[in-house]
């Protein structure tokens, strides 16, 4: 397939572009800067200049290709208003891409987050949250999946809170960056709460599989580690950075604090059974061994 990819230079997106190109597909990738354009060209992708807010550019990219993987999301997490603006921008982009593909039966794979279910690991059958600070993302994904009845092979790959590569990325990456700043490998809550995780290269394989074969209207979990205890994550970070490990207030992590304190494991059993996805890259705790002081 010739695939249109947004967000193709991020932690996940760069891995997805490489995975597609390495498996016989070609890529048209959205680039909003000269640096992104050069990185994508160096990777072997064709480039379409524009941003996630350029809806006509997004429609043009979708119309020129055999399928879409939508990964782009705003980078401003400075507060509730900035986050809400990024979610709204992402929702408008997904709607534009979906509308362009109505009646084509082409695939459109988008990204979402694994839901939180009290007392157990969430599964692919659990609904995405549609209220709260990130509820808009759930509503946008649900709207996209509903286009399955209108001739769009829309699917969603739900990502865990930590997508990592070489010890960087996700919630664990924020813990490490905060530790370098504060001089403490801190963790919120009692440390027993669990976070799911996946290596970016394993996640990229799942995006390709969903693009190639997932049925319309389906949801998949890119979860390799069902749930690593936050205290265990902090201990590895502390050891690698030579810093003390201790509990810190949720406020240390700004708007993410309450989320960081939640127990939020997730399962990918159905994804593995149906799509044959098999993570092969290092676990989060092993990958964190790449951290350097």
From TrEMBL:
<protein>
    <submittedName>
        <fullName>SDR family oxidoreductase</fullName>
    </submittedName>
</protein>
<dbReference type="Pfam" id="PF05368">
    <property type="entry name" value="NmrA"/>
</dbReference>
<dbReference type="InterPro" id="IPR008030">
    <property type="entry name" value="NmrA-like"/>
</dbReference>
<dbReference type="InterPro" id="IPR051783">
    <property type="entry name" value="NAD(P)-dependent_oxidoreduct"/>
</dbReference>
<dbReference type="InterPro" id="IPR036291">
    <property type="entry name" value="NAD(P)-bd_dom_sf"/>
</dbReference>
<feature type="region of interest" description="Disordered">
    <location>
        <begin position="115"/>
        <end position="136"/>
    </location>
</feature>
<feature type="domain" description="NmrA-like">
    <location>
        <begin position="3"/>
        <end position="73"/>
    </location>
</feature>
């Amino acid at each position: 397939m010739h695939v249109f990819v947004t967000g193709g230079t991020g932690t996940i997106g760069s891995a997805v572009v490489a995975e597609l190109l390495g498996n016989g597909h070609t890529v048209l990738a959205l680039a909003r800067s000269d640096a992104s354009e050069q990185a994508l060209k160096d990777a072997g992708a064709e480039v379409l200049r524009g941003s996630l807010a350029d809806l006509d550019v997004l429609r043009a990219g979708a119309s020129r290709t055999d399928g879409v993987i939508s990964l782009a999301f705003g980078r401003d997490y400075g507060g509730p208003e900035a986050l809400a603006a990024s979610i709204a921008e992402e929702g408008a982009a997904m709607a534009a891409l979906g509308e362009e593909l109505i009646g084509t039966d082409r695939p459109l794979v988008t990204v979402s987050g694994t839901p939180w279910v009290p007392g157990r690991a969430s599964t692919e059958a659990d609904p995405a949250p549609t209220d709260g600070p990130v509820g808009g993302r759930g509503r946008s994904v649900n709207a996209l999946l509903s286009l399955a009845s209108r001739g769009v092979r829309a699917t969603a790959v739900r990502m865990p809170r930590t997508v990592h590569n070489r010890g960087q990325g996700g919630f664990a990456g924020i813990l490490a960056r905060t530790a370098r700043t504060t001089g403490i490998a801190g963790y919120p809550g009692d440390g027993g709460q669990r976070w799911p995780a996946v290596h970016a290269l394993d996640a990229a394989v799942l995006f390709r599989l969903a693009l190639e074969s997932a049925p319309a209207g389906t949801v998949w979990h890119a979860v390799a580690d069902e749930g690593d205890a936050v205290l265990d994550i902090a201990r590895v970070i502390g050891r690698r950075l030579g810093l003390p490990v201790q509990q810190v207030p949720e406020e240390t992590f700004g708007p993410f604090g309450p989320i960081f304190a939640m127990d939020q494991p997730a399962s990918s059993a159905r994804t593995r059974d149906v799509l044959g996805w098999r993570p092969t890259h290092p676990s989060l705790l092993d990958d964190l061994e790449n951290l350097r002081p």
